Amino acid sequence: MPESPEVDALAGFVRANAVGRVIREVELEEFRALKTRARPLTELSGRTLAGVRRFGKHVALDTDGPSLLIGFGRAGWARWAEEPGTDPDEAPPVIVRVTFEDGAELALTDAGDWLSLNVSVTDDATSEPSVAKLGPDPLSDAFTREAFDGIAKGRRKQLKALLQEQESLAGIGNAYSDEILHAAKLSPVAHAASLTDAERDRLYAAIRDILGGAFAARRDVPLDRQKAEKVAAMRVHGRTGEVCPVCGDEVRDVPASKGNAQYCATCQTGGVPLEG
């Protein structure tokens, strides 16, 4: 799943390489991806790309007319080509193609078993429900320590679920929530309401530190290397059975996660493995 560090890098790439180019057409390869059926993609034809904005795990391609809002969902991503050509072998299927007058192409893909990538044509990306509902970006000035208390204090919600709740914090997904909780030395199944002030301090600091480092590390990485670089940087996520780089204990799966979430018992649960 692309999360805010990777999506931010993608937005930066498109901003650097496509702003100022004229869109020839936007082709819809999978009709279910278009969420604004009353706003056809033909509205973008002939428009000049004027800017690129990121909202959590969403990107808005702003033209001199309407914007194309892209939600990457669980398995969406993008490929860029300066010249038209055939799609790479065994590449994820293309869902939407944005082709520019000079032949360059931004292909939006989805590698999931079910479609999660979606697009909308809108005059105001911030008014679209998927963006309007988002909580603060964890690296924004709005995400203060006091704001975090408003999000977490008293919530009877497990910490891993809270970190991934987009209405509370925008842009954190499965992988970085594991990494954040490991850095904060907190159990993924602990409830936010149970945290002490000191534990909330640690969690707030870990959110800022882990994401801040990831944003810096993903910047300028080629689009086709983003996933590999992200995977390589993980300390516990996706490392089931491997050695925790902090304490040397075995990295374990979070019970009932079906192998999709990991933690270290020594670092996070007082040395006692979580029960299924």
From TrEMBL:
Formamidopyrimidine-DNA glycosylase catalytic domain: residues covered: 2-115
Catalytic activity: Hydrolysis of DNA containing ring-opened 7-methylguanine residues, releasing 2,6-diamino-4-hydroxy-5-(N-methyl)formamidopyrimidine
Pfam families per UniProt: Fapy_DNA_glyco (PF01149), H2TH (PF06831)
SUPFAM superfamilies in the record: Glucocorticoid receptor-like (DNA-binding domain), N-terminal domain of MutM-like DNA repair proteins, S13-like H2TH domain
SMART domains: Fapy_DNA_glyco (SM00898), H2TH (SM01232)
MF annotations from Gene Ontology: 8-oxo-7,8-dihydroguanine DNA N-glycosylase activity; damaged DNA binding; DNA-(apurinic or apyrimidinic site) endonuclease activity; lyase activity; zinc ion binding
Domain FPG-type: 235-269
Zinc among keywords: yes
PROSITE patterns associated with the record: FPG_CAT, ZF_FPG_2
InterPro entries registered for this protein in UniProt: FPG_cat (IPR012319), FPG_N (IPR035937), H2TH_FPG (IPR015886), Ribosomal_uS13-like_H2TH (IPR010979), Znf_DNA_glyclase/AP_lyase (IPR000214)
UniProt keyword list: DNA damage, DNA repair, DNA-binding, Glycosidase, Hydrolase, Lyase, Metal-binding, Multifunctional enzyme, Zinc, Zinc-finger
GO biological process, one term: base-excision repair
PANTHER family per the UniProt record, alphabetical: FORMAMIDOPYRIMIDINE-DNA GLYCOSYLASE
Family under the similarity heading: Belongs to the FPG family.
Listed name of the protein: Fpg/Nei family DNA glycosylase
Originating species: Microbacterium paludicola
Biological classification of the source: Bacteria, Bacillati, Actinomycetota, Actinomycetes, Micrococcales
